Amino acid sequence: MRIIDSHTHFFPDKVAEAAIPKMEATSGYKAHTDGTRAGLIRSMEAAGIERSLALPVATNPEKVSSINRFGASVKDPRIHMAAALHPKAENWKEHVEEVVELGFSAVKLHPDYQEFHPDDPDLLPFFAALRDSDILVVFHAGEDLSYKPPYGGGPARIAWLMENLPGIKIFAAHMGGYRMWDEVDRCLVGNPVYMDTSFSFGEISDERIRSMIERHGAEYVLFGTDSPWLDQAAEIKNVLRL
Predict the structure, then answer these.
(1) Between the CA of residue 210 and those of 39, 62, 123, 239, 241, what are the distances in Å?
(2) Rg of the Cα trace of the chain?
(3) What pLDDT score was predicted for residue 216?
(4) Which of 218, 224, 239, 125 is nearest to 178 (CA)?
């Protein structure tokens, strides 16, 4: 069986040394790898995962180009890199052009880390540029353990963007909205938006996950772990249990 993890993270080695302990402290979660590329590969090999999509986040606009240059330098058939963008960058058009030139097919955005809302009308030109470039937009969706409410990436906000920008390709992580499952049911289930399974097992029942997949369409539900924050091998077992 070919297994692809649609939701992983790693950092350059020196960055991981500082980033992982800081994120463990703010989230209350213990990482399952050391946050490096080598650590991700070891986890993948132990779990029998063939390939992973790695999702970097630019916490400020100044980091966008350096993150993407690093991502473009990763030449490993086991890892498919997404790009980083920041919706509030003044030169976001240049950044989008760079993402296209470097050959990325997806970008990761985090409404809480980056302090924006997907349903901000002022951001429609930014998202239209991604749509027109055929770039998949991956959102952290729902609550975030490192932040307090109100949260920026709720399912209703993502649904607004889809309604107001037809044709945009969206991947709403964490089954459409971590700990906002009723809102996911109302706003996203049944619509052409990708979701992944990360941080859903143990939060909602297997019966509800199965029901959501059946109603949403299995072709739009991806296997994801949010590694290093969840154990990839354990998450495979959770999916197979369904």
Answers:
(1) 31, 41, 34, 10, 10
(2) 17
(3) 98
(4) 224
